[in-house]
Amino acid sequence: MTYNPYDFYFKKAKKEWYKARSAFKLEEIQNKFHLIDKNTKTVVDIGCAPGSRMQYTISLLQKMHVKDYKVIGFDLKRVDMQLPWMYAYAQDITEQDKVDAIFAENWIEQVDFIQSDMAPNTIGDKETDAIRSIGLLEQTLRVYDKYLKPDGKFCTKIFMGPWFDEYVANLKKKYGWKSIKVFKPESCRRESKETYVIKI
């Protein structure tokens, strides 16, 4: 199949004023697993640029009439967007002290939901990209361990390849075999190795 950067979901994102197609990936995950609900008060978005998932999340929280929510985003790139109770930081999520300081500034001790679309800079070799993806995710697990509530939920993008099965198995041992799901939204490009690991 020929790669088409201007496919259906690209055009749909433009039409609905989303910054990127990733909003529809989160929408599919939400429709299937209902990760965000009326009890969701604090959301962390890792790899948040350009901001489409935060757009979707805040729209959903508002539709659910959730009050006093906070959506905190981290990315190496700046997010040029302002939405109610959204705070986006140009900050490396692996710099622990700086991340802890941001949580403290926002009076956040625990998080209801973590959504991550973070990925390494790809080189085109799918096996290498997959290994680098898992390595990067493992560097962020401290955030999950320290801040995610015991009944908190997450959805994390990952590239399938070497170590994928082992990584998922380790998450199942940690969070419970029935709690961890693997799901690839239709809005992911067919040729892409990306999928999502989800804690329900």
Summarize the structure.
With 200 residues, the chain is of the alpha/beta class.
Features:
6 helices; Rossmann fold; single chain; 22% strand; 200 residues; alpha/beta
Describe the structure.
This protein has 200 residues and is α/β, with parallel strands linked by helices. It has one domain: Vaccinia Virus protein VP39 (Rossmann fold, 3-Layer(aba) Sandwich), CATH 3.40.50. It is built from 6 helices and 7 strands. Helix 2 packs across helix 3 (52-63).
Could you say which structural class the secondary elements and strand pairing correspond to? alpha/beta
Low-pLDDT residue spans:
6-11, 13-17
- Gyration radius (Cα, Å) is 16 Å
- Helix-residue proportion: 25-40%
Q: Given this structure, which CATH class is correct?
A: Alpha Beta
Number of helices: 6
Tell me, briefly, the overall form.
globular
Amount of beta strand: 15-25%
Main sheet characteristics: 7 strands, mixed
Q: Could you tell me how far the N terminus lies from the C terminus, measured between alpha carbons in angstroms?
A: 33 Å
- CATH architecture, by name, is 3-Layer(aba) Sandwich
Mean pLDDT: 88
Count of individual domains: 1
Assembly type: single chain
Compile the SSE list and pairings.
Blueprint: H1 8-15, H2 22-33, E1 42-46, H3 52-63, E2 70-75, E3 86-90, H4 96-105, E4 111-116, H5 126-147, E5 148-159, H6 164-175, E6 180-183, E7 194-199
Parallel strand pairs: 1-2, 1-4, 2-3, 4-5
Antiparallel strand pairs: 5-7, 6-7
